[in-house]
Amino acid sequence: QEQVTESGGGLVQPGGSLKLSCVATGHTFSKDNLAWFRQAPGKEREFVAAIHWTKTTTFYGDSVKGRFFISRDNTRNAVELEMDSLRPEDTAVYYCARSRLPYMELERTPSSYGYWGQGTQVTVSL
What we know:
Number of strands: 11
Oligomer: single chain
């Protein structure tokens, strides 16, 4: 059975940093695009970042560009999200997902991805 599991969330003060990790089991995603999304209470799911299977292209949401950095480690079957200069508005549950098919053009839309993880909570507050 294929599963994806996010970890690394927690409580951090404004201006602080966190590193999220997502590890997949039951499937090797070396040829899949990977993405991070987030969802705050009462709000729609928001695109955060995505990385192409070749690692040559990355996309970032406007609100996180320059502060968040996505990377992937195929030896660990993992994708990571380094978050710096965190703001209260970054508070959300963060989800990772892989593209529904391999060898795809990099996309920003949630419908392009599947096999969502359970999410990890990030809270930015004093």
